[in-house]
Design brief:
By secondary structure, the protein is α+β, with helices and mostly antiparallel strands. It is built from 7 helices and 10 strands. α1 packs parallel to α7 and α6 crosses α7. Its cofactor is Zn(2+).
């Protein structure tokens, strides 16, 4: 699932790409993604509206519309937003398939594959070959979008388009008013990249749940917004704390170190345009650059980059959890 760094990356890219544009039309191919509105109601309500600003709260994108309403977008597990500029061009994308495969890098000569295909290992997720369309920009090639995973297409007045792809179809778009958006977003906890997320606030959160595991706290969106599996595991590694540690067993210095690690890690991940460890891609279809910097996530069986111990993976509350049992305590 795209987490805070990935959604923030998309927010910044959307701000450059579509802020100020007017929506010409919306095509809904999977009705559940725009509930409670019907596809026709959604399309009518959004048509002719100008996007005046783009914000983010937790993992939710907030598009301000010129009529005072808001378009909310949540990518959930496998959602992707891809922008096609007015001038058609070939864009690299990450197709979504269900099987995983081994790492090998090179250029495919298979005529059934697109030109310039490279591969990367995704442990426990979807394989993400980087595909470039065979169709040239002169021919109007846009790497075969829309495809079978494209469920919403928003077209702007200048003929540019925003595609919402989703393998599992859990993502959604909602048009809401001010009261509705305030109610929905109030359910999220403190933003870890704001001044409100200070050491005192962090300690208060931990103190309320002394018998919980630290990973349960970090991933509880009602307590701290935007942290998911990737950055939870990586933050715990940075603080040399096992994700399974019970809150009341944490020492003062461990709490302080974890507190410092969280925003530092998130800011660094944003600077690298997020992690494409599953199906996340940037607005232009390219993968994020954070994956090579991950220390434990999706590295089961590999050597720890800090102590050379072996990275382990367990299930914690149904979520794959990665850590080094040698240098995390």
């Amino acid at each position: 699932m795209p987490e805070l760094p990935e959604v923030e990356t998309l927010r910044r890219e959307l701000n450059s790409a579509i802020k100020g544009k007017t929506i010409k039309s919306a095509e809904i191919k999977w009705p559940k993604m725009v509930k409670p509105l019907t596809p026709l109601e959604f399309a009518k309500k959004i048509k002719g509206k100008k996007i005046t600003a783009i914000n983010r709260r937790a993992k939710v994108l907030i598009l301000f519309l010129s009529d005072g309403n808001f378009l909310l977008i949540h990518l959930k597990l496998t959602g992707q937003l891809i922008y096609q500029p007015k001038k058609l061009q070939a864009i690299p994308t990450l197709p979504m398939r269900r099987s995983a495969f081994r790492l090998y890098v090179g250029t495919s000569r298979d005529p059934d594959r697109s030109v310039g295909t490279s591969y990367k290992l995704i442990i426990g997720g979807h394989p993400l070959p980087l595909r470039f369309s065979e169709a040239s920009p002169q021919k109007g090639g846009t790497e075969n979008l829309p495809n079978k995973f494209t469920h919403i297409i928003i077209t702007f007045n200048d003929s540019s388009k925003l595609f919402f792809n989703d393998l599992r179809k859990f993502g959604w778009m909602r048009i809401v008013n001010k009261l509705e958006v305030d109610k929905l977003l109030s359910e999220y906890g403190v933003e870890p990249l704001t001044k409100e997320f200070n050491l005192k606030k962090f300690k208060e959160i931990l103190k309320r749940y002394p018998n919980r595991k630290i990973k349960q706290i970090l991933m509880d969106q009602s307590l701290i917004a935007g942290i998911g599996n990737i950055y939870c595991d990586e933050s715990c590694f940075g603080a040399k704390i096992l994700p399974t540690r019970i809150i009341q067993t944490l020492k003062e210095e461990e709490i302080k170190l974890l507190y410092r690690c969280i925003p530092k890690l998130l800011k660094f991940a944003i600077s690298k345009k997020g992690t494409s460890a599953n199906t996340y891609i940037q607005l232009d279809g390219k993968p994020g650059g954070m994956e090579p910097y991950l220390k434990v996530y999706a590295r089961k069986g590999e050597k720890c980059k800090r102590c050379a111990g072996e990275i382990k993976r367990i299930k914690l509350n149904g979520r794959g959890t990665h850590f080094c049992p040698n240098c995390q305590k």
